[in-house]
Amino acid sequence: MTEIAQPLEKTFLQKHGNKFPALLFWIGLIVAYNWYATTNNLSPIEVVQSALDFMTDSLWGPLIYISLYSARPLILFPSTILTLAGGFVFGPFLGVLYTIIASNISSTIAFYVGQYFGEGLLQDNGSGGLLQNYARRMRENSFETVMIMRFIFLPYDMVSYLAGFLKIKYLPFILATALGSIPGTIAVVSFGASIEHFDGGLRTLNPVTLAVSVGLLILSIGLSRLFKKKEEISEA
Predict the structure, then answer these.
(1) pTM metric for this prediction
(2) 46 and 77 in contact (C-beta within 8 Å)?
């Protein structure tokens, strides 16, 4: 009897080669931004300063801010600096509103970028590998895990990329991100609103606003401990 030839298993390049152009484009964006900043001797704060004039006293200011914030993870630009700028330009109330909108859009972009590049790389085949076990645990407790990560201020984009890479569901990810980021967003935006000059030097700070910011940071850390304890009890 003639044996049926088994199809050859595809190589890594055959499986994922179509992602390389997108990866090269993404790397190109990061390199281009860093080249521009280095060539012009600009720090991240100075880069934001150059955009402040376009955001201040302009009808297009909120749209420019949200657009810059949304695209920020693609060049790995620090979220904290733009969040401070949001408070500085728009004040504590509108600053929080615009930042929440922008941060959720930026998280969504980073999530789907991570999902695209992670597709097919992590196979949930029941093996007991460390990464597979962590991915499975994160999928089973997506909301609580992401919420804790947001509360304890882990690198914002890293959490979004990791969540997409590990293929957790989008809805619990974005809900946990939206809720878990609120205390930190209010704290940082309020801190930004208390700065008189956005030039890297904190010349004038409102003590009340500063106290609120510190209080919210403490609240966020406390909530992370509460959720962590709840998660440990449920796993026991």
Answers:
(1) 0.79
(2) no
